[in-house]
Design goal:
Length: 259
């Protein structure tokens, strides 16, 4: 799959590509070849599919990330890391603990103060980290308000939206990307997801259709496949497809679907 004249070893030696491991959430970790320029380009393409992200995301904007460090970031369960150890370029990782239940009031106070000092345009939470919700809700207006909250890697429930809405007034947006194929879906401001135009040339198609629930909506799985590797990679999620091809956001190209 390498272009002519290219070499994995030369790419690693030059620093253009890296070897990265997936988090291994449900199975053993998998090593992938990583090119940051390619990933950044696919992320920029996804911003065009949501008017809030188009307005907020400049490519050098600050983002605060609240995730389990097993997924991304730096793990430090025994020592609380200073903010300098949790900064990477325009990103701030608010959490270094693998178990959110270990968060103390001091750690949650630190998160609040760092949000106010860092003033991110976007915040990326993992919604399972909701121990802080009642604590932060009690602070009310003391919590800094980012321009948007972007969910990635997992899908928030109505309950999670309600809990987070008690603290943050920013629009909440779901996105989906994978280490292997980059950013593939971005929820528009109307709540639909449409195709991302990435440099990898992705095609999205429904498969494994289930029962028909209406003339225009079939539940089925959404599949992401690089055109160059058609059929080799598939990521499935049960969705309801809107075959009219029309969304109130005005972006009517690509697949439009709802969870």
């Amino acid at each position: 799959m390498l272009p002519p004249g290219q070499s994995i070893d030369l790419g690693i030696a030059s620093g253009k590509i890296h070897l990265v491991d997936t988090s291994g959430t449900t199975d053993d970790k998998i090593t992938n070849i990583w090119n940051q320029e390619w990933w950044d380009a696919s992320e920029r393409a996804s911003w065009k599919l949501n008017s809030h992200m188009t307005r907020l995301a400049t490519g050098d904007h600050h983002e605060a990330i609240l995730v389990n460090p097993k997924n991304v970031g730096i793990i430090s369960d025994n020592v609380d890391l200073p903010i300098e150890r949790r900064r990477l370029s325009r990103y701030l990782y608010l959490n270094e603990k693998t178990d959110p239940l270990s968060w103390t009031p001091a750690i949650m106070d630190r998160m609040v103060s760092e949000l106010d000092a860092f003033r991110p345009r976007c915040s990326k939470p993992i919604h399972r980290s909701c121990k802080a919700v009642p604590y932060l809700a009690a602070r009310g207006s003391d919590v800094y308000q980012p321009g948007a909250i972007v969910f990635t890697y997992e899908y928030p429930t109505v309950l999670h939206h309600r809990q987070i809405g008690r603290i943050f007034s920013a629009p909440r947006i779901s996105s989906y990307g994978t280490t292997e194929v980059g950013y593939v879906f971005m929820q528009c401001e109307e709540g639909s997801c449409t195709r991302t135009r990435t440099i990898a040339g992705l095609i999205f198609s429904p498969f494994c259709r289930a029962r028909r629930t209406s003339p225009r909506q079939d539940p089925g799985h959404a599949t992401a496949e690089p055109l160059e590797l058609h059929g080799a990679l598939q990521y499935g999620d049960l969705v309801s497809l809107d075959e009219s091809g029309k969304c109130r956001c005005g972006r009517n190209t690509g697949l439009i679907w709802h969870r």
